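TA notes, week 10

Several of you asked for a full example with nothing omitted. So below is the full record: structure tokens for the whole chain, then the designed sequence directly under it. When grading your own attempts, check the secondary structure regions first.
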């Protein structure tokens, strides 16, 4: 279950991002689209120049642990300082300094799992670090969730699973294929779900009643847990039991995923670094550790790839992860998951048949985005391969959303109200739904519409 965290900032924020690569730059691009004032600190002036060319933000060449650089970036007026460099120690120092110099809230990217223990988190809080994010830990949790609900290509829970985002691919024999959305609603009234968006050949479609479903579409739905079986039946998705899985790569994500899964299924990890294999063997007493090169297809075959129900590729090489998943799919593995670090590869990976893509940049943006939306956002999820977000927000007293039923509200373009959670119960939002103070509302939004969406609930 995702913890409930509240934010009480104005919609437009002054945000400083300290980064040394794609995670920081992707976050900067994402948040600038939501019209925040973004300043990026990095030591590489050439990369900063390229970033500033295509985005409405400021850049400063320097090190984030420099007090002079932080002051130049405007740390005293900063609403949110985000430090997402690869070195967690630098992120920690950056946030401690930033807080002392006037930053209202700080977020540090960390890798060490022990830092995220509740006792240690309170210690870091006292030092000035308000939140810590571990993309590797979140990625491992997503892998665990996907293997427990294996008909989904992507899944994300709100309020402990009272509502879920579920994404899957349409096949030729699916009941929805070549039908309009309005027809689907008439033919299958038992489908208690909201179609959030459709991905077709890399294009995002916010569907209306007259839009068609086509074979190969990636469809995002918001649904209640008791609707899952009906959805699986209509989409011709057959639940199966995952008893055996192979993980390629024993780094932080692979190791954490194995820790989550080894008590539930038979696991085998392929790791090419011999020293890391010894460490894995100490940590994973119920997992078989194999020292070998995962790019060697014959090795995967010799280690029983054809017998696996799931294959998860988490090496540092996107190309190796994609190719090994394709090989696993070719040999009949039912579920494949690939860590893809290059966002440009996501569309291609989905089109060629890999079931699920995990991307650390999107994961980091998902976690941090809820601190930048304003109001009381409890969780958020950037959808893989598209420029869109789904978030859960608590409705404030006397907010515009409570003034009338949903069909009569002035809802901005690019925004869709998906579902409501009230008193521990969930339901899909309809035209005649009345939103009440204190409700948790799950909202779909394009980046440029997020600020307008939040005004509905504040």
């Amino acid at each position: 279950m995702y913890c409930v965290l509240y934010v009480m900032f104005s919609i437009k924020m002054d945000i400083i991002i300290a980064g040394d690569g794609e995670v920081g730059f992707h976050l900067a691009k994402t948040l600038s689209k939501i019209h925040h004032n973004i300043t990026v600190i990095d030591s590489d002036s050439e990369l900063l120049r390229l970033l500033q060319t295509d985005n409405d933000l400021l850049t400063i060449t320097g090190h984030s642990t420099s007090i002079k650089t932080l002051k130049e970036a405007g740390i005293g007026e900063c609403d949110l300082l985000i430090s997402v460099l690869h070195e967690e120690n630098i992120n920690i120092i950056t946030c401690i300094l930033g807080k002392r110099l006037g930053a209202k809230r700080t977020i540090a990217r960390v890798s060490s799992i022990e830092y995220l223990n509740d006792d240690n988190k309170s210690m870091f809080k006292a030092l000035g670090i308000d939140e810590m994010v571990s993309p590797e830990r979140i990625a491992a949790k997503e892998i665990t969730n996907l293997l427990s609900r294996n008909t989904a290509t992507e899944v994300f829970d709100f309020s402990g699973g009272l509502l879920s985002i579920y994404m899957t691919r349409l096949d030729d024999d699916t009941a929805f294929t070549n039908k309009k959305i309005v027809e689907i609603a008439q033919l299958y009234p038992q489908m208690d779900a909201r179609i959030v968006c459709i991905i077709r050949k890399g294009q995002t479609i916010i569907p209306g009643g007259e839009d068609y479903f086509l074979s190969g579409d990636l469809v995002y739905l918001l649904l209640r847990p008791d609707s899952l079986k009906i959805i699986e039946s209509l989409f011709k998705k057959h639940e199966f039991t995952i008893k055996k899985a192979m993980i390629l790569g024993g780094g932080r994500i692979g190791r954490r995923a194995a820790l989550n899964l080894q008590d539930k299924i038979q696991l085998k990890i392929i790791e090419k670094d011999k020293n890391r294999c010894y460490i894995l063997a100490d940590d994973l007493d119920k997992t078989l550790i194999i020292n070998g090169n995962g790019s060697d297809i014959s090795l995967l075959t010799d280690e029983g790839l054809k017998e696996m129900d799931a294959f998860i590729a988490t090496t540092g090489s996107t190309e190796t992860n994609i190719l090994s998943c394709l090989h696993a799919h070719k040999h009949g593995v039912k579920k494949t998951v690939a860590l893809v670090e290059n966002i440009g590869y996501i569309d291609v990976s989905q089109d060629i048949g890999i079931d699920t893509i995990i991307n650390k940049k999107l994961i980091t943006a998902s976690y941090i985005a809820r601190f930048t939306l304003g109001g009381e956002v409890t969780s958020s999820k950037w959808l893989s391969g598209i420029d869109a977000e789904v978030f859960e927000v608590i409705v404030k007293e006397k907010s515009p959303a409570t003034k009338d039923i949903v069909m009569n509200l002035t809802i901005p373009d690019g925004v869709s109200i998906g579902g409501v959670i009230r008193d521990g119960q969930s339901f899909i939002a309809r035209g005649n739904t009345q939103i009440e103070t204190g409700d948790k509302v799950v909202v779909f939004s394009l980046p440029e519409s997020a600020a307008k969406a939040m005004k509905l609930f504040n």
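Residues 1-10 have pLDDT under 50 and may be disordered. Use that as a sanity check on your answer.
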